[in-house]
Amino acid sequence: MSTPPPEAASLHGSATPAGPASKAASSRSRPCRRPSSSPSSDPLFSSVPPPVSAVPTGSPFYRAFLSPLCDQICLRMVPPSVCPDAISFLALCCASLATFFCWQADRHSFGASANGDAALSRGKTGAEEESEGILAFIPALSLSSVSSFLNFLGVDTQPDTPFWAVAGLLWMLYSVLDNVDGKQARRLRQCTAGGDFLDHSSDSIVTSLSGLVVMWALLQPASARRPSSSRLLSVSPAPFAAEAYPSHTISLGSLDCLAFILITQLPFFIATWAHPIVGRTILSSSLEGCHWFSVDEVNFLVIPSLLFVRALVPTFWSTALVSLLPHFPAFVHPVVTFLSAAIGIVFQLDSEEVTLGVLLIFASCMLSLVASTRLLVQLVKYDHLPRLLPGVVLFAGSLAFKPPVLLQLGVFSLLCLELIAARLKLHVRTQLYMWWPVALYYFFLFTLHGRDSGAPAGLPEAFASVLGKNYTYHSAAFMTFVLLGICLLSYKHIINRRNGTSQASRKTD
Fold it and tell me: What terms describe the molecular function in GO for this protein (predicted)?
């Protein structure tokens, strides 16, 4: 258990405490309601000296705007009866709802023409077809007021416009709540190791959700009639869905999966892995802390901006680079043409299919790859490899088998959960606990890959026949999320019991 640093302060102190979300790029250390173990207390990291200089406590935007805003929200709008863990859970719900609305936007955008044709063939109107299915009915009912408000402002709304707009607002709310939970904890003096565990474990889930939101917004064309080859994220029917109410799930291709890992999961995994080495979570290539750009800008400004642009200008991110050549000076044309061709080769696209969204994804992948490689070169040593290898094996399985993203998301969160639990001294005798999510992942991959039934071989015939009807990627993902919930709650309870009562500590995310 680390001693609170000198700069750790109360809600009204000079420090600027708040928790970053899960995805992006900053490095800072802030006072937190979640204590962490000092790296010097672990024999594995005793040879690594802790940082001697204090890192910056946030970007200028965080210090000047976001932190004061969250201070006022915490003091004026959050009653003392609300526990910090409830705020953390509410933040996770906001991120999940934002992802859900992006999925609904996809269904409304790409399913409009197909559903209309199918409805006419069955003799149904569009209104009757829209009223079928719970997932289609509830969002349409709740977002009609959003469409009316946008129309009042003069915005020419598309069927998916309100979903992107609400998703952007929900992600901004998530960013605020993710900062407010730590402030509420210090306000109530409820700083627990279990709260630290819950906060960081929730971040591992939001990490993957943010990648889905970004890739949905950037890579899906605005028109349902565009050729499917221009979509980097393929959508396939869910195996458990009824034929009358088909739902969709993301099926990541090889390059899409690599891009998804690079811009979301790899940075967070390295940050979680490096935490015991440097004494704080590293969320950028810099070990000295953030300067002007941090994860707060990403979650409060960047991701919502991507969604708002997608809502208000649906064709912006799907604009091909080569179509912009008439608007560029002549000397820029060779650069744009070469860039379109090069990115097209990487993503196996024609140069006419390289859009602004594809360009932004490509740039994010390159920045993440360079930053992650730099961090690994600076920090990795032989003693650190046992905690690094599970992630390498997990990512290799994702790239080789290309499973649905829900299964990958659940197993990745389980692995990060075990890494965080090990840092908080839940597992002190062995590091093999980090391998059971990977083993479970490969069991699902080998038994489900390329099979219609997915029933593992070697089981009794009666049992295998029953299992074959229900054993799918989606049931495997469901089992993974059930395990994630059980481990999250039980580990939090055990960590709190081992660490005693609440105590003030340093913000470590």
Answer: phosphotransferase activity, for other substituted phosphate groups
